[in-house]
Design a protein that fits this description.
Elements lengths: L6 H14 L15 E5 L2 E4 L4 E4 L2 H4 L8 H13 L10 H13 L6 E5 L2 H16 L3 E5 L8 H6 L15 E4 L14 H19 L4 E7 L14 H12 L2 E5 L14 H4 L5 E4 L11 E5 L1 H6 L15 H16 L2 H23 L3 E7 L2 E9 L4 E2 L11 H12 L2 E2 L1 E3 L2 E4 L7 H19 L4
Parallel strand pairs: 3-14, 5-6, 5-7, 7-8, 8-9
Antiparallel strand pairs: 1-2, 2-3, 4-10, 9-10, 11-12, 12-13, 12-16, 15-16
Amino acid sequence: MTPQPHPQAGAAVKAADRAHVFHSWSAQELIDPLAVAGAEGSYFWDYEGKRYLDFASGLVYTNIGYQHPKVVAAIQEQAAKMTTFAPAFAIEARSEAARLIAERTPGDLDKIFFTNAGADAVEHAVRMARLHTGRPKVLSAYRSYHGGTQQAINLTGDPRRWASDSGTAGAVHFWAPFLYRSRFYAETEEQECARALEHLETTIAFEGPGTIAAIILETIPGTAGIMTPPAGYLAGVREICDKYGIVFVLDEVMAGFGRTGTWFAADLYDVVPDLMTFAKGVNSGYVPLGGVAISARIAETFAERPYPGGLTYSGHPLACAAAVATINVMTEEGIVEHAARLGTDVVGPALRELAERHPSVGEVRGTGMFWALELVRNRETREPLVPYNATGQDATAMSAFAASAKTHGVWPFVNMNRTHVVPPCNISEAELKEGLAVLDTALSVADEYTE
């Protein structure tokens, strides 16, 4: 589709937004949101007719791109048949979505509790774990993001937690492995893995194993930096959880449904959690949907004991119809395999080649359509290109990088000193190379801020 300029319409949209919309994670008077006129495939465009290749997939959720015709048609068909219905009933769209998800989850995660998004999926996973164990505490990693609701934000490890963290939510944080910025003075992946597991078990010992209900980890942390765990780490966490009777929760909200080149990131590590949260890619965000995949052991706890939790829109028909269509499209079109191939054959080699030429690139990491570039001022010291949690003038270098990408038609994902390469999983190879060429140009701007 060729975007047509409609600047007056755009001005009206922008004026209404600034008058009435309260934006998340923002100082309201300091933002300037782009007015978006439309989107299709891997692109969106503004009312001036400028088109952007979306290297952020929205917020890393449009795994099949925008406006996939089969999913749009499925939503329309469901709306004509049954727009909504209460969650206590069995309806076709809900049942089929649950069946398709359970077919793809690892191990015996065969029961699906539907939520509206990833944050409330985390809330309910934690509630299930606490009720199952009778214990109060939950352990989570510092470099993590688990959602914006009260429990989920307390479990989150990044600075967005600080304003809401009263220290009373039963959340305990620990360091997960990340060799590039090791907290364990490790020099190899093997050392990092062993020392991170020792640190976790020591944390459990000092917190009291009998007080800990769950350990929750993003299988591959997303917003915090796409740090793929070293071989053996998740299996080691599984063993520790089994040893102390702790529920193991994997958060696959961002990494799930093809993003890593597998249906779930857990498939890469041959590990089965007790509970697994999902959202985003389950229907590419076309209608809000999330959920918890539940093991037989946890489900048995609530076989004759009521689960004290629910949502009015749990398993909403429109959302579930979108999920059914999305999963079928991903299967029929080989989108998961496509993401794996492009990650291995195109993105990985291209980003490593960029790292050789650009002094601002400290590390490349990722898999599938899930990659990050760690940008630094100095490769030797690994000083980040901007300080941790930088804002305003302190974030100038990353702002300049992002501005360059946007000027040349790519919308980047930027967080702190990183840019993530997370386009739709069905992006074409030609589109991908187009975006990588713009990334090359923008990195030259970042290079100007290196030592």
